[in-house]
Amino acid sequence: MTYCNVLARVDAKHLDDILATFFVRWAAEQRCGAEPSRLQTPPGKADHTHLAIDGKTLRATSSQPHPVHQLSCYEVATGIVLWHCNVEEKENEISALKPLLTPQLIKGRIFTLDAMHTQRALCAQVHRLAGDYILIAKDNQPTLHEDIADLFEDRTPDRRRWKRAETWDKAHGRLEHRQITCCPDLNDWFGKELGRH
Q1: Mean per-residue pLDDT for 140-165?
Q2: Of the candidates 196, 63, 53, the residue with the CA atom closest to the CA atom of residue 133
Q3: Are 142 and 179 found together in one domain?
Q4: Residues 62, 124 within the same domain
Q5: pLDDT over 90 for what percent of the chain?
Q6: What secondary structure letter does DSSP report for 119?
Q7: Which of 74, 98, 118, 192 could form a disulfide with 135 if both were Cys (CB 3.0 to 4.6 A apart)?
Q8: Which of 109, 131, 153 is the last residue of a domain?
């Protein structure tokens, strides 16, 4: 009960900020010693930092009738959680995320999110605020999914500009093989769809 009473009075956002600052500095010291130029880099100024946003339902952690669904944003290179918030009962991840996508968070960052967030409004906002994204197209965007599938099944396009990468990872008792093929051939079409010029 003592822990519960203390934690109930702690400002979670302020605690997140303090811990993030500590772990960012600690990680920087591990990577580059006391080199001042790296340690004094202001937050949000490191270009191309990969941030992952994901939601998880926390089961068996509360006596409440509805389990808590939490949305988190973390820096992949360090594993530091930059923020997290509870998705309220009458909202979803998309609406909970909107107020958290600030210019300071987005600029110069690359975001990965799951297929639920593959929405035109989010893509346009991230692009407008000078960020980038990697999103998954699934059946929640049937036309988009079909257009991409058609492109990669077409045998006639010039594939010299296409890039491919793959990784093999062994962890948690399994071997994971991941492949990605990147192609700029639909960029102009997607740009028109998002209202880009």
Answers
A1: 83
A2: 53
A3: yes
A4: yes
A5: 20
A6: -
A7: 118
A8: 131
